[in-house]
Amino acid sequence: MHKKGFTLIELLGVFTLLALILLVSVPTIMGMLKKQREKSYLGFLDDLYLATEAYVQNNDTYNLDEVGQTIYVKIEDVVKAHYFRSTMVNPKTNEKVNMNHYIKITVNEDHTYQYEYVTEKPA
């Protein structure tokens, strides 16, 4: 009588093959997930910068005419003016947007603006 089934060598071969596939695919998958998180964070920053830009353009308090000029806009002000939602989550920290952080806006030589997310305003 001949029993149907796999031999130990065949099972070891299958497990070895699966281990090799995992060894190759896990770093690739982890890299893809990291890139997706980075893209998500950059999209979050773009949204925040656009909201801040709209807030500054519609607010007479800020004057951005001189090259090299820098202003700091508190995120809380942008949210209170309804340009950005306070419920937004920062993908980098997975926490709600910190209202005490700032967007630093600097006027470039070609009169475009450079935006930067900063945690505190310098003294």
Structural class: alpha+beta
Please write the string of helix (H) and strand (E) elements: HEHEEEE
Instruction: Report the end-to-end length measured between terminal Cα atoms.
Output: 88 Å
Give the helix tally. 2
Percent strand = 15-25%
Average of pLDDT: 91
Low confidence ranges: none
Strand order in the sheet with the most strands: 1-4-5
Largest sheet, strands/sense/barrel: 3 strands, antiparallel
Number of domain units:
1
Number of strands: 5
Question: Given the C-alpha coordinates, what overall shape results?
Answer: elongated
Report the helical percentage.
Answer: 40-55%
Radius of gyration: 26 Å
Question: What can you see in these coordinates?
Answer:
With about 120 residues, this protein is α+β, with helices and mostly antiparallel strands. Helices cover about 45% and strands about 15% of the residues. It is built from two helices and five strands. The protein has helices at about 10-55, 75-80, and strands spanning about 70-75, 90, 95, 100-105, 115-120. It has a three-stranded antiparallel beta sheet with strand order 1-4-5. The termini are far apart. The mean pLDDT is about 90.
Compact description:
With 123 residues, the chain is an alpha+beta fold.
SSE layout and pairings?
Elements: H1 8-57, E1 70-74, H2 75-80, E2 89-90, E3 95-96, E4 102-107, E5 113-118
Antiparallel strand pairs: 1-4, 2-3, 4-5
